[in-house]
């Protein structure tokens, strides 16, 4: 099988976690801002789409070069062997972005790249008329940064955070891959209790259960690459999915609970857990933060409470932080990980965090306030 240069894209702040995921899968990596580079065959493309929990997309690098004129962009794009990836009937939309570059007009950049590919394929496939573009979709992107052009083919289709299990959501849902990142950062082991006290639509507990059972996060969805019959050997996708299903371990007893003060959100969380096939693995209950207590030890608590972005909500949200502090500070064997955009969180919680980590929930800067527990043997 041909080897490709590959990129797993990632949100700012979690690139190192994606790098660790790829290394755990057996790949050598190069971590950069917003992405992790690695290499592999089309089998590896399918495998990483199935298994990466924290990445956004897996892309094939078609080519990269320097360009400061449209002629350079056209000629170097046309020189690439597009026919190795795109069949005659490929539908290949071109997205674009440009930062701090001479070629800053994105619509023009997209049009030039599209024209160059059309001319290349027309010559190779002996087509003087327009290409049909009636087949499978091959999403392309041209990204220019400081005059460096990166041309990629997106193998994922919709972003990898779209696992396929979330049938309903609340007002401000956490993306599934950020929820998986929070669980990863919490260093939770499946034999310890796991609690989300403000679970909303249940994303964090569901991602914890997927990790606990070693379920591939992409099992319930399809990827763009699976429709590329000219590149993907027949039955390869089924083979990798079968292997992923065999790798799951449902014999582990998980202790995962999600609470929320809103009964409607609890029903939504239960529906999402059922959709993920995890309704037996997670207990969801309607309960306010101030009313929760536990006698369990050595647990992990991960929370994404409301941020109080509107001034009218800020007082009630900070009261919630006070309630969290009053209860959680007494739980010395538990590790607590709380994600919020309120950078004054520690003041209202009543204790400085052991560590803070900057993360992004979409475009919103948030901090993960970490309070490490002292495990009781």
TrEMBL record:
What biological processes does GO assign it?
methylation
InterPro entries registered for this protein in UniProt: DNA_methylase_N6_adenine_CS, RlmKL-like_Mtase, RlmKL-like_Mtase_CS, RlmL_1st, SAM-dependent_MTases_sf, THUMP_dom
Could you state a single Gene Ontology molecular function term? methyltransferase activity
Q: Which UniProt keywords apply?
A: Methyltransferase, RNA-binding, Transferase
Keyword RNA-binding listed: yes
Q: Which CDD domains match?
A: THUMP_AdoMetMT
Does the keyword field hold Phosphoprotein?
Answer: no
Q: Which residues form a coiled coil?
A: none
Q: Taxonomically, which superkingdom?
A: Bacteria
> Which segments constitute the THUMP domain?
44-155
Pfam families, per database record:
RlmL_1st, THUMP, UPF0020
The record's section on PANTHER family has:
RIBOSOMAL RNA LARGE SUBUNIT METHYLTRANSFERASE K/L, RIBOSOMAL RNA LARGE SUBUNIT METHYLTRANSFERASE K_L
What name has this protein been given in UniProt?
Class I SAM-dependent RNA methyltransferase
UniProt organism field:
Limosilactobacillus alvi
